[in-house]
Amino acid sequence: MCGIIGCVGHGTETTDVLLDGLSTLDYRGYDSAGVALSNGTVDVVKRSGAIEDLVSAVEASPPTGPVGIGHTRWSTHGPPTDENAHPHVDCPGEVAVVHNGIIENYEALRERLRAAGHTFESDTDTEVIPHLIESERDDGADPETAVRRAVERLEGSFAVAAVLADSDAIFAARRDSPLVLGIDDGGDRRRYYLASDVPAFREYTDRVVYLDDGEFARLTPEDWTVTTLAGDRVEKPVDTVEWDPEETGKAGYDHFMAKEINEQPRALRQCLSERVDELDGEVSIGDLAYLNPRGVQLVAAGTSYHAALYGAQLFRAAGVPATAYLAHEYATGTPPIGDELVIGVTQSGETADTLSALREASARGARTLAVTNVVGSTAARECDDAFYIKAGPEIGVAATKTFASQLAALNTLTIGMVPSKDDREAIAALRDLPADVQQVLDESNAAAVAEQYLDSEAYFFIGRGLQYPVALEGALKMKEITYKHAEGFAAGELKHGPLALVTSETPVFAIVTGDGERAQKTIGNVKEVEARDAPVVAVTDGASDVSRYADHVLSIPESSPQTAAVLANVQLQLAAYHTAAKLGRPIDKPRNLAKSVTVE
Amino acid sequence: MSRQTAVVLAAGEGTRLRPLTHNRPKPMLPAANRPILEHVLDALVETGVDEIVLVVGYKRDRVQNHFGPTYRNRPITYVRQDKQLGSGHALHKAEDTVSGSMLVVNGDTLIDPTIVADVSETFEDGDAAATLAVLDGPDPHEYGAVAVDGTTVTDLVEKPDAGDYRLINAGVYAFEQEIFDVIDSTPRSRGELALTESLGRLLAEQPVTAAETDGVWVDATYPWDLLELSREVLQSGVTALPERTQSVWIADSASVHDTATVQGPAVIGPDSEIGPGAVIGPTVALGRNVTVGANATVGRSVLDDDTRVGPGATLLDVVTGQDVRVGAGSVVPGGPGPVEVGEEIFQDRPLGALLADRVHAEGGVTVDPGTLVGPNATLRTGVTVSENVPADVEVRR
What we know:
- The structure holds 2 protein chains of 2 kinds.
- By secondary structure, chain A is an alpha/beta fold.
- Chain A folds into 3 domains: 3-247, Glutamine Phosphoribosylpyrophosphate, subunit 1, domain 1 (4-Layer Sandwich), CATH 3.60.20.10; 249-442, Glucose-6-phosphate isomerase like protein, domain 1 (Rossmann fold, 3-Layer(aba) Sandwich), CATH 3.40.50; 444-600, Rossmann fold (3-Layer(aba) Sandwich), CATH 3.40.50.10490.
- Chain A is 34% helix and 22% strand.
- In chain A, helix 4 packs across helix 5, helix 14 packs across helix 17 and helix 15 packs parallel to helix 17 (561-582).
- Chain A is globular and about 80 Å long.
- In chain A, 59% of the residues are buried.
- Chain B is globular, with a radius of gyration of 22 Å.
- In chain B, strands 1, 4, 5, 6, 7, 9, 10, 11, 12 and 13 form a 10-stranded mixed beta sheet that branches. A 9-stranded mixed beta sheet of chain B has the order 15-16-19-22-25-28-33-36-39.
- In chain B, helix 1 packs across helix 4.
- By secondary structure, chain B is an alpha/beta fold.
């Protein structure tokens, strides 16, 4: 969520590189931002508010120096103010530090530093770090040693970067919070970057080094090194990333979310390519096909949790006991693990709650599998195996295409791990999925339906079976980007309580696909809400007669039960998007939310 | 100095290609296995253009989704022309995105890099206010005719009824920034403004040069032209896929059964699957994620993305849209046949059938030569259809 950027080797352009990086990172959600440049002294400029506020402050008094770090902050300790913005400095202003994560022992450290005469200006946990470094310098340590010793005293999770007035280096360390180096040293050129996420410097280089927990990096205008905290050299591989920096552009759309909803057919093609063979009736998932799990525990949070609920149903339908857990609940109340495979579903691969759950499972001897979008992410590297959803970068805070790709990937995974003779239809439906999603996008009337219900008090979403997670996800999308009250329910649960909330001012989106027992029962629930005068929006493939009881219909093509969930979800994404757009909400950066939640 | 920015006009539907343009504009229709517009952008990139401005309008989502923010690492700026009021009006929409001189090309006509390079060179070597590519070959009375005196353009006439013209306007231009002022001062006719109108005004006052070129130029006006377009691409081999044997290109992610036969020229796009005993070719282009079932035969055809051909079906001289399903044993015996476009009937055109997006032909369907089937139409088992089938209908016996 918070973003870090740093660069050396850009001479007088350092500030521009840092600001560019921060604008690229700001999709993570932020409420303040700042930069610090070192050039004999340390110049710090920081502001609460948007990147634009920082840009005007920088223009008013430009910081200079060939080495710099920057930060976008999302408040965890202390409100968003200029003082609480990063970078933070020591007493004389000769050390500047940016930090993601949480320093758990900061209160104790701060008391000790205060007692030693240090003064603090902010409410943040981060501010102890520059003062710790200052105190090591006072004891005679050189810059690098001072930073190492300071980091050693921190408890908690962090990615930290520091610059010092009398050093031309950036020092950085990580524990439980992502940090990646960018290397651009062709010919005479020596330019190095560090960031919490690759897109921040992807414009300049595609060669990256992923730091692991407990590693310490030093970037200077001459070279880069990675060591352990104790100082032992670590030989790190330099990876090449494939994503194109311009993929972070909106491509003619008003919002990233609209772009990402519309590019779902392409994302699904990438996810399914070379994995699904219709004529042979087979899927290919490599060695994962031999895992043969006796049971599955899925851990995830947010939208990924809805995908996990869906995945658990797929495994159970294939005869494998499976349960989805909220990662934060799982990490602190881990269920018994026997032979179960533990699957972490996380778009970014950096979701702190999910990483904790996976580590807990690993510590108890479970085999772990990451289902993620980001190659080289912490989840991908820490789990025994990784299965990539290949959706491409997602910038909008509200997950859209990555949810669709998670569902497609979980289908592929289930069929590949637990083959059955009934797979042919499901495989054909998966192969048709990109075109079917395109059909929904071409023909959707969700914008017109959304227009009808802008003033509603609340929005409810109901579904059964595989459509229950979709109901939850539809409600999550609606609340995330419209700020309206929205809830998703298992349709059968309505009369056990939620029905009391249903009025003529609360439209109910009912997802009804196929014409089986589940569809008929959900139609029964539709009649219940209709009797309370609630407007009904049916999302349906037309197989049942639900449209007779609905005020509006959002149509999807006929498909398999598994893929119908993906198609229904596209209609709900569009309904939420158009509602938010008509209400004038900041769709790509909803208030209080961040793209990937890297603190617990 | 070379021209570094190109404005590509890609906002128009291409009404004479209905019903294939129901969900996308003409630039996104297939030239073999890739959209026409992709070939246009290739021509620009290969001649050194490093910034692309795409003017989009009709069904612009499809253009934006396909190309995203870059093409071959060149940034794309999208400019909206919400009402399609002519090519001059479209270019004018791009005014704020261009500084200095620029290339301007139509996004719906297949071109190769030669044309672009010829225009660039002529423009840079002279001091004309504008340069346009002209071709000797296609019938000037069907396109925009160009009269020249040496290399100076003297007149532009759209589809002249008579007159001795040799050259046509290829729709590839180089302009200085002042073209925007000329467009501003050109009166509109019925609200519309063609770029050639403004060019006519410009050449009355300043020198405009013609760059005669022998580059590739193929315009698809009518549905059967899409087969010609595809043939041209297969002949020149610009499929962007690996060539397996002589004139047979197959994507790495495609699978072709050992017992299937592929006769070149033919291209098989990513993720496509060819079943046992199927015969593909010659002169066949399959897009992305296409399935051809066991023992089916496909010849002289363009099958667009996600098309499914059932076992034993026979398709000759066919153009399909996206997501078309043709059931087992269905037959399209091939052209020539009478084709009804708008109010006009063209006799003996080389078209077996055009099946628009999401047509579902069940098993054992027969489609007579020259038939156009509208989007989402369902042809139930065993029917025979001829002439034109409207959109969204169900045809049963």
